[in-house]
Design brief:
The model has no long low-confidence stretch (mean pLDDT 88). This protein has helices at 7-59, 65-74, 100-103, 113-118, 165-212, 229-262, 281-286, 298-302, 305-316, 357-393, 395-432, 443-454, 481-498, 555-565, and strands spanning 82-86, 92-95, 123-129, 134-144, 152-160, 266-271, 276-279, 322-329, 332-339, 347-355, 439-442, 462-467, 476-479, 502-512, 515-522, 570-573, 583-590. The longest helix has 53 residues, at 7-59. It is of the alpha+beta class. The protein has a five-stranded antiparallel beta sheet. A five-stranded antiparallel beta sheet has the order 7-6-10-9-8, with helices on both faces. Strands 12-14-15-17-16 form a five-stranded mixed beta sheet. Helix 13 runs antiparallel to helix 14. Bound molecules: adenosine-5'-diphosphate.
Amino acid sequence: MQREFSLKVKLIVSFWLVLVFSLAVPSNYFIQSVEQKVDSQHLQYVQERMEIVQWIIAQEEEKKPEKLDSILKSLDFLDDARVSVLDAQGMIIADSRQPREEFEGMSSYIDYPEVVQARHETGYHTASDPWEDDRRLYMATRIDLSSEQEDTGYLRLVTPFSGLHPYFQHVSANLWKFVLLSLFLSCIVVYLMVTYLTFRLKPMIKMAQSIGQGNFQQRIQDSPGREFDPLVEAINRMAEDVEKSMELVSSQKSDLETIVNGIKDGLAALDNQGRIISCNQSFKKIFQHLDTINGKKPVEIFFNNSLQAACEEVLGNSMKQTRTMELEIKEKFYDVHVVSPSDQQNIGAIILLHDITDLKNLESIRKDFVANASHELRTPLTSIKGYTETMLQHPDIMQEKGTELLQVVIKNTDNMIRLLDDILQLSRIESTQDQVALDDVDLAAVIFKSWNNCSHYTEGKNIVFESELEQEGQLLVRGEAEYLGQVFQNLFENSIKFVPGEGFIQVLVRQEGNQVWVGVQDNGPGIPAAEQQRIFERFYRVKKDKKKVKGTGLGLAICKNIIKAFGGRIWVESPVPGNDSGCIVWFSLNRS
Ligand code: ADP
């Protein structure tokens, strides 16, 4: 930036120019014109005296040098003027002051400017006298020195001509002193004015600076002067407008942040160099193990070259485009989209992470389910097919073992029906999980009703059933009576299957804060610790029991889903504390 002169310098120079033009120039002009006027009057006065002398000489008939000399010396009106009569060669022949013997040997004045000029008209000029330190007027005119008018001479006059000149010089010198003093004073006035102005402008400058630093609430209260009112008003209005705009921008920004942070998908923006400049909460959550995300390249946080390549492709290609891929990050699966934003100068690309872990799990559950269900159905169907084919191919066998074979067919058919019932039950609870209407349920009533429904399974076994909750209406829990009955029935059926001939099944009830923990304990063999986590999976059956004990592997999965719908959880404890066998299947329920 070209550096300009300061306001002080500009003002001082302006003042000086004004002073010089308004003071010095006119005064100088005035002095000179007055001096000229005085000079011309003086000149006229001298000329008149010379004409008088000329006239006196002209009256003299005999113009002899001695005569002329005595006439000149007799003239008393000449004051301080010296008058000489020169002959045609410019030699003095008569003089008003000098004695004759002094000027007789003097040199000629013929080449003196006033004499040269006098050949045509009255000549004069002024010059400083180096000896007298004064100005003198030299005047000459032609005169006739003979009666026949043949002999021409000159009348020459020398007189001090300083007049008012020294006075004017004195006035002029004083005037310049006065001008110089005014210039000096103007400097002081300008300095004080600018200092005062700067002092008055300081709040305005401070305020403008503070607006620049983001303090938009500031306003100028005092105006430095009336001339600054429009400026003060404009700055205050500007601050107000900027404040409003900033409020709007920040509210829009916070709205946008709320929206972006509310999105469940991870979202990160890359700049044109491919570095992350911003990301939402979901994205931060996915990479919460990292200290920083901003400023890093995608490969530094995803550790995936294909994603980095996709980002670079999107960044490098001006055509709007999207790259999609599937990535596994910390045991979760994501659909990753790299999108080129439209009409954005600062953002080069956007990375979008959509969590598809549930979808993937469901997909694998669906596949497992189909495989398991087909397998479980195939076994009884193969058996039914085998037995019926045998009966068809060997009709004679029907006589001997027909009933036995048909009973096997019926047993397998029952297995299939039970399996399908369980599948239907599971699918029913899964589809209505969120909409199960919870109610206050009498826990003891459900326990006893469920045990009664299972009593026919106990045939052939001597089972003692006990419940810690004996009185109906004693404890109410949040749930749904029919679904809760199914949970108890499944658990009772499992226990009945596994208890030995002399069985013992007990319902345990613990009150834990707002919850009730209910356990179904039996004196069966228990469940191996390694498989306890897996028995709640669909179709999972403990390996050692698969062949020996009937079942579909769906009972506990159904229980888990029902308890989950009630807002509780289910777990297993085996062996029973203080024993080396038996198991307790626990589940929690909310109290009414
Ligand atoms: P199933 O219909 O086969 O009983 P469940 O899901 O109810 O299927 O049970 C899964 C597996 O857990 C069973 O195959 C069984 O081996 C084991 N199990 C369940 N309850 C008990 C229990 N009370 N005692 C021992 N093992 C049990």
